[in-house]
């Protein structure tokens, strides 16, 4: 991570996200971030109480990106819901080291509540009512967040690790989809899309 000029809270948060993407969450401390930026780490304490405070700010920034998506105004609710959930997964895949932390920390953040509201708005627009709305939200949240965290587990070698595991099965069909890490990545995305479509269809099946 090259030295950069950082002076505002937002600057430091952006720098911390880049640092974690490159070095991993375990490597992040206020001191290590200051060293990477060629700054005295005490400058960070003007903006953050500690690492946990910085981590919350990082997660809020990522979730803000997720909820800032402009959903297609002319699209049907199902298409809008797919657009939102795909964007959520894509954002998490961009920051695999933060994915698990996002699930653990985001419950208290207003931006996370905004995401919940956006999903529920589309579910209601699809015709869901009563307990079907929170039930369906819970299914979709668990699937999108859980499958993405599973898919990036072991980053940055997660794709190679899964490729090796699939090859060890000795099954020709699995051999076909695990020749390269690109094959494994494509398998992950196909499986995600099929599962997401099936879940959404299941949500509306009882209407």
Automatic annotation (TrEMBL):
<dbReference type="InterPro" id="IPR001647">
    <property type="entry name" value="HTH_TetR"/>
</dbReference>
<dbReference type="InterPro" id="IPR003012">
    <property type="entry name" value="Tet_transcr_reg_TetR"/>
</dbReference>
<dbReference type="InterPro" id="IPR009057">
    <property type="entry name" value="Homeodomain-like_sf"/>
</dbReference>
<dbReference type="Pfam" id="PF00440">
    <property type="entry name" value="TetR_N"/>
</dbReference>
<dbReference type="GO" id="GO:0045892">
    <property type="term" value="P:negative regulation of DNA-templated transcription"/>
</dbReference>
<feature type="domain" description="HTH tetR-type">
    <location>
        <begin position="6"/>
        <end position="66"/>
    </location>
</feature>
<dbReference type="GO" id="GO:0046677">
    <property type="term" value="P:response to antibiotic"/>
</dbReference>
<dbReference type="Pfam" id="PF02909">
    <property type="entry name" value="TetR_C_1"/>
</dbReference>
<keyword id="KW-0238">DNA-binding</keyword>
<keyword id="KW-0678">Repressor</keyword>
<dbReference type="GO" id="GO:0003700">
    <property type="term" value="F:DNA-binding transcription factor activity"/>
</dbReference>
<keyword id="KW-0804">Transcription</keyword>
<dbReference type="InterPro" id="IPR036271">
    <property type="entry name" value="Tet_transcr_reg_TetR-rel_C_sf"/>
</dbReference>
<dbReference type="GO" id="GO:0000976">
    <property type="term" value="F:transcription cis-regulatory region binding"/>
</dbReference>
<dbReference type="InterPro" id="IPR004111">
    <property type="entry name" value="Repressor_TetR_C"/>
</dbReference>
<dbReference type="InterPro" id="IPR050109">
    <property type="entry name" value="HTH-type_TetR-like_transc_reg"/>
</dbReference>
<keyword id="KW-0805">Transcription regulation</keyword>
<protein>
    <submittedName>
        <fullName>Unannotated protein</fullName>
    </submittedName>
</protein>
<dbReference type="InterPro" id="IPR023772">
    <property type="entry name" value="DNA-bd_HTH_TetR-type_CS"/>
</dbReference>
């Amino acid at each position: 991570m090259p030295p950069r000029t950082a002076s505002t809270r937002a600057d430091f948060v952006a720098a911390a996200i880049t640092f974690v993407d490159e070095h991993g969450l375990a490597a992040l401390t206020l001191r290590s971030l200051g060293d990477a930026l060629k700054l005295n780490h005490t400058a960070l304490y003007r903006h953050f109480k500690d690492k946990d405070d910085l981590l919350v700010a990082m997660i809020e920034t990522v979730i803000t990106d997720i909820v800032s998506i402009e959903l297609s105004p002319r699209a049907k609710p199902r298409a809008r819901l797919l657009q939102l959930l795909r964007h959520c997964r894509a954002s998490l895949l961009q920051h695999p080291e933060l994915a698990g932390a996002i699930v653990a920390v985001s419950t208290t953040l207003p931006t996370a509540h905004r995401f919940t509201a956006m999903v529920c708005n589309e579910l209601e627009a699809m015709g869901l009512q009563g307990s079907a709305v929170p039930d369906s939200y819970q299914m979709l949240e668990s699937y999108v967040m859980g499958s993405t965290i599973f898919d990036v587990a072991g980053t940055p070698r997660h794709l190679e690790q899964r490729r090796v595991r699939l090859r060890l099965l000795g099954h020709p069909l699995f051999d076909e989809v695990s020749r390269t890490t690109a094959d494994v990545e494509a398998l992950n995305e196909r499986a995600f899309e099929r599962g997401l479509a099936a879940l959404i269809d299941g949500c509306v099946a009882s209407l």
